[in-house]
Amino acid sequence: MLQIHDKVFEPYITKQKLSNAVESIANKIALDCKNETPLFLGVLNGSFMFCSDLLKAYKTPCEISFIKLASYQQTKSTGKVNQLIGLNEDLTNRTVIVVEDIIDTGNTLEKIVALLKQTSAKEVKIATLFLKPTVYNKDIKIDYTGLEIPNRFILGYGMDYDGLGRNLDEVYVLKD
Ligand code: 5GP
Q: What pLDDT, on the 0 to 100 scale, is given for residue 72?
């Protein structure tokens, strides 16, 4: 058991299971990218640990960069506008692989994909370590999924609860 602030978490996904899922995603991507050098785009903060292990398991040439989705208020009438922070690479003709820790509703993913579609990337693919299929409600195809989980709150392996727990090397779930 693990207590963080007011919440109690219990062990959920072991190191071994995580590393199998990561390796399987790396192998699938490598097969699909035989003739190219993909550019992995890790979505901060949650995906940092997954990205690190994914890249170690990816044995052929690739590049990595990190992005963050931010929104700023434009005017009262136009409302919030999303932007990608940290994208310094020229994506022209690149195969881009967005790397997410977890996809829940898919709202974050939808915004990121919309912004990447405005670039000249050849292809934008999605890799996520976790997916909550009962909550995900978008049409965007998720090309590589590590593990499907029910609609429960998890933390560890990069994912936080109120800023804490990202350093845990296993995944925990909020106790009912
Ligand atoms: P979405 O936009 O798909 O609803 O949510 C995506 C983001 O919400 C993730 O990148 C993550 O930061 C956060 N999130 C969604 N589900 C969980 C969860 O179970 N645990 C944690 N720690 N974060 C989550």
A: 77
What does each C-alpha distance from 39 to 15, 117, 123, 126, 158 come to in angstroms?
26, 15, 10, 12, 21
Residue 90 domain flag: yes
Counted domains in the chain: 1
In a domain, 29, yes or no: yes
- Active-site residue set: 104
pLDDT in tens, 35-80: 999 999 999 999 999 999 999 999 999 999 999 998 777 777 777 8
Q: Name which residue sits closest to atom 12 of ligand 1, judged by CA.
A: 46
The domain that holds 131 is classified in CATH as 3.40.50.2020
Q: Is residue 95 part of a domain?
A: yes
Domain that holds residue 64: 2-165
How many angstroms separate the alpha carbon of residue 130 from the centre of ligand 1?
A: 9
Which of 159, 128, 173, 126 shows the shortest CA–CA distance to 146? 128
Global pTM exceeds 0.70: yes
Question: Is 8 part of any domain?
Answer: yes
Ligand 1 site, CB within 6 A: 46, 100-109, 153-155, 159-161
For residue 146, give the nearest of 102, 95, 111 by alpha carbon.
Answer: 102
Q: Encode pLDDT of 140-176 as tens digits.
A: 999 999 999 999 999 999 999 999 999 999 999 999 8
Given a cut of 80, whether residue 18 has pLDDT beyond it is yes
Nearest-atom number in ligand 1 for the CA of 161 is 22
Distance, CA of 91 to chain centre: 19
